[in-house]
Design brief:
The chain has 392 residues and is of the alpha+beta class. It folds into two domains: 122 residues; 263 residues, no CATH class. Helix content is 35%, strand content 19%. The protein contains 15 helices and 13 strands. It has a seven-stranded antiparallel sheet, with helices on both faces. A four-stranded parallel sheet has the order 1-2-3-4, with no helix packed on it. Helix 1 packs parallel to helix 2 and helix 2 packs parallel to helix 4. It starts with a strand and ends in a 5-residue tail after the last strand.
């Protein structure tokens, strides 16, 4: 039996260490994944990295047991942690579930999962300045699909309704700490709603099946928002040796986003799915390199597949770049690739589909996209960082 422990003190760099240690290891069997009852500190990209590790590990060697380091009478508090619902949902049909005393807790978890699903489905408040909407495709439709985004008949093609609901989530759950953040984001809330609509639609169209259009056995797809408050010095220290560190050192950030307490407020948006990823999804249809496929997904009218949706083909991910231009950051992780765009360093300009070489993307690992020894991941993870201006 192999025990893999996610500690309370987990960080993105420690998740990467676990990834390198276990994902490519041969002859793993009888895996028990141990998750904590809480995580000490959430930073940008932590949930994306944790989901990527768990989804990829389970796709290569099914996780036999999920052990939660908690007493079963305290399970309610587990659902204050954003990783709990999606990880348990991912493993629901295939794993055993035990508490810290090795007691079977699946029956108890069923009620907890259903309660949290009802909260998401009704857009009820959850603890903290965050929100999570997660679809689970391998559960029954009425217990797995968030009705704001989908129903048994298909995707909700009402962009206005989704945008209005996202605004409600932000005002009631995510941006409750500082009223100035609500005022600032008012001018772009429709664009953010449109981004969520577009990316969630993409997960519906090509995040549920493999390259042969066969359902992925364990499939979760979701949208996550979190409001962060971080000390600037600690932020720069925590993201040492990553592209986030120079981003937070930009003069624009220091001049416009740093408050009197040396803090930076910023919004994180994550859209994720456990599907086969951009490369395998589109490789058979295009005579393009892997990187060109990712770039093509960033060009207008290129991402959405043909479907029964009423609207025209999607606007693609390039709308994100336009909204974040001169102020934000986006990271895309899929297959062997982790690419990013610092929109302060490299301002956005619309690119024609025939000029993909002009679309600027950087390698998160600073290795010139040399991925020969990089381990392929399962799923797609699009992380957006939007810094708020200081109200000093």
């Amino acid at each position: 039996m192999i025990e893999i422990i996610i500690p309370k003190s987990i960080t993105p760099s420690r998740i990467n260490d676990l990834y390198r240690k276990y994902i490519n290891q041969q002859n793993l069997n009888e895996i028990t994944l141990i998750i904590p009852n809480s995580i000490n500190k959430y930073t940008f990209g932590l949930l994306a990295d944790l989901l990527k590790f768990t989804i990829t590990l389970n796709s290569r060697t099914p996780i036999k047991t999920l052990k939660i380091d908690i007493e079963n009478e305290n399970l309610d508090s587990l659902y204050d942690q954003e990783y709990a619902y999606p990880i348990i949902s991912l493993l629901w049909n295939t794993s055993n579930f035990i508490d810290k005393n090795n007691s079977d807790i699946k029956t108890i978890l069923r009620d907890k999962q259903n309660d949290f699903f009802i909260k998401m489905n009704s857009l009820s408040r959850i603890k903290g300045n965050k929100y999570l909407l997660t679809n689970t495709d391998h559960l029954s439709k009425n217990k797995g699909l968030i009705r704001l985004l989908e129903n048994p008949k298909g995707f909700n093609d009402d962009e206005e309704q989704i945008t209005n609901s996202i605004k409600k989530i932000f005002n009631n759950n995510v941006l409750t700490f500082n009223k100035n953040n609500k005022i600032e984001i008012e001018s772009i809330i429709e664009d953010i709603g449109a981004i969520v609509y577009e990316l969630a639609k993409n997960t519906y169209e090509w995040g549920k099946t493999d390259s042969n259009l066969i359902d992925v056995p364990s499939s979760i797809r979701g949208v996550y928002f979190r409001f962060h408050i971080n000390n600037s010095d600690k932020l720069i220290e925590e993201f040492e040796h990553t592209p986030i560190q120079p981003f937070f050192k930009h003069a624009f950030i220091l001049d416009n986003c740093l408050n009197e307490q040396n803090q930076i407020y910023y919004l994180e948006i994550l859209v994720f799915d456990s599907g086969i990823g951009f490369i395998d999804r589109f490789h058979q249809k295009n005579n393009l390199s892997d990187l060109e496929i990712i770039k093509k997904c960033l060009v207008k009218n290129q991402t959405s597949s043909t479907s029964n949706l009423k609207t025209k083909k999607g606007i693609g991910l390039d709308r994100i770049l336009g909204i974040l231009n001169q102020k934000g950051f986006v990271r895309i992780s899929t297959d062997k690739y982790s690419v990013y765009r610092d929109l302060i360093k490299d301002n956005y300009e619309p690119i024609d589909i025939q000029q993909l070489d002009k679309l600027k993307l950087d390698d998160w690992n600073d290795n010139n996209f040399n991925n020969e020894n990089v381990i392929k991941s399962q799923g797609s993870y699009i992380s957006i960082l939007y810094p708020f201006k200081s109200s000093n």
